[in-house]
């Protein structure tokens, strides 16, 4: 907003978003959104490649039973699939609140 711009890496922008430099957060958020829009195919390809790699690794490691692709993440987060499903349901049912908050912050 002051006419200054700074080129940052994604992790640097994410640090600003989760940090306490509130005066820089909007610019960082907008920068991330612009970059994701500009490079959406690249972002999608990266995410798909990571997901594919995880699926391949799970198939290699799970010889006794099939492992759901979310199982390692659920285990690492120490939550059950039912807990995640409940959180996703509440989030979906309450999305209007989050959307309103996002509009108020923008």
UniProtKB/TrEMBL annotation:
Per its UniProt entry, which superkingdom is the organism in? Bacteria
* Name recorded for this polypeptide: Oligoendopeptidase F
- Please give the organism: Vibrio parahaemolyticus
